[in-house]
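User: Can you fold this complex?
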Amino acid sequence: MLGDIITPDLFASALRMATPLALAAIGGTICERAGVVNIALEGIMLTGAFFGTAMVLLTGSPWLGVIAAVASGAGISAVHAFASINLRSNQVISGTAINLLALGLTGFLMELWYGHPGTTDPIKVLRPIFNFESPGGGAIAEAWRWFDSIVFSHTPIVYLTILIAIVAQVAIHRTKWGLRLRALGEHPRAVDTVGVSVYRGRWVAVLMSGALAGLAGANLTIEQVGSFTENMTNGRGFIALAANIFGRWTPVGSYLASLLFGFADALQIKLQILRGVVSIPPQLFLMLPYLLTVIVLAGVIGRAVAPAAVGEPYEKG
Amino acid sequence: MKGKKSKVLAVLLALMLVVAFVPACAQEEPTDDPGADQPAEEEVTIKAAMVTDVGGLGDKSFNDLSYEGLKRAQEELGVEIEVLESKEITDYESNIDQLATAGFSPIFAVGFLMTDTVIKMAPEYPDTQFGGVDEFFDPPIDNVVGLNFKEQEGSYLAGVVAGLATKETFDAKLNPDNVIGFVGGMDVPLIKRFEAGFIAGAKSVNPDVKVISLYAGNFTDQAKGKELGLSLIEQKADVIYAAAGAVGLGTIQACQERGALFIGVDADQFETVPGSGDVMLTSMMKRVDIAVFETIKSVVDGTFAGGENQVFGLAEGGVDLAPYHDFDTKVPQSIKDAVAKAREDIISGAVTVPDAL
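Assistant: Here's the predicted assembly.
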């Protein structure tokens, strides 16, 4: 019975489902560290998912699709940057507007380009990188099945995400750029005083978060499902925001938090298999990831302190 | 300076909102003046409309099928048609209100989620005729006809195919294990009918078969559908039936990647999902289009069955199995015969298919 739940695919599935959350969460981390709230992650992810798919449909190249997803993510986040940095508008409102815009824009362009709403035609997807033969037999083969499934069964962006989490962690905490980024979110006036442009620093951070959320969209369409469906992100951008907070505004923390959410989701699927044995309504399991989010945000993990100047537009004095 | 910037922002946000709402208004062929070329003898043109569920047009499922019925009525009966899409559950009421105020009748409310809205709105517009797709009204309402389907009967046939196929070897994707899978959208009575029929059908021909059912919790998340499919395949399921809207599209992807056969739902998904032929064994078709068309026809003929709950089963042609398409030559005659026998038994009443677990 337990063997039906604790399987190699449980962990592989957790990694797969954590990837889009983690990319968006790391994007959110960078953005909020610079003092800009980005609740538009959901919409940016959807935009990346759409333009990535559109590019693959156009060119047949999944990698060009990934580039298009990243570029379109950065592109639509520029709207957020302009509104919240240059125009000093309320960042939550600007983010909400982008979420609405992305939903409408992708639906509209689907009608315009493909003549129908709903789901696009299937696209060429990125395949898992590794494809090793199982060595030996017996216990070795069994151990290898686990190892291969958890470590080697993944598509490129899954691995890239782990790399991005580590690089971003080092960049934010160990480099001059990172020091300035953190200062932008804590005390932008100080950054301005030493002659570094607050606007420019924040622009770069918002664009980076857009690019990462766009990449998350590419993972969903070009790696996971191989087509675009309207509103397919299904709230992942908002769970990513929670993961960013749970990860205490650090990239590796965001990744680990996303992994926990991914694991909870993977676990609930496997737990449903038990329904044949024990009669439990599936809703109970489906609740698990969201319940976890609420518990986490309610402060079980201790108080998380946001950057001091987050959400405050900076006005040159 | 600051005032000017706020104005720019205001314009920008207004533009965003306009773009955001464009698709909501951009229906396909909004009343393409169908009456013009018709021999317009009738003094009053019938104006039929539908309100989609949140899945919207393009769901390759019951919303699209309802629209097919509407389009057929436009071509064959010369009625005017209109579609309003619901993006949120909160759109139901305003969409119905808008159509009823504009004089549309009949108005089809598509999807069981809209049942309560119809119960609330229909008495407010007593002269408007309503059709509720997948909606059962108890007590019945005078100006509403409920259009329901015996999904369990079609699913029973799908279960017969899956239960026999998992023991066969006609395709390399079939494994020796006696396990099949079901993917459901939301755990609601409607989807339970699919599940109950599928399990009953499979067990009728293969009593030892293990059927694993997994639910996604929604009808839109394809990535979740793929994960559910991968989990089923890891459990050695080799034939998977999905009644889960767009979620099932992800399950098809899982079947293609890891090798399992798929049974589609609602429409003949071999036709509606491009490139799925290598795994699409068959589909359980739910002829929402026929039910919608017949209802419009009854309004045109003046025989509208208000106050009734109609049920379309196998006998009425409301549900059935689609062709095997690419698998037609591979599927052994024994399976085809078993399906034919099950169909006869259900229609004759020799077999009663359960509608709940």
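The domain at 44-149+289-312 of chain B is CATH 3.40.50.2300 (Rossmann fold). Chain B touches chain A through 55 residues (CB under 8 Å).
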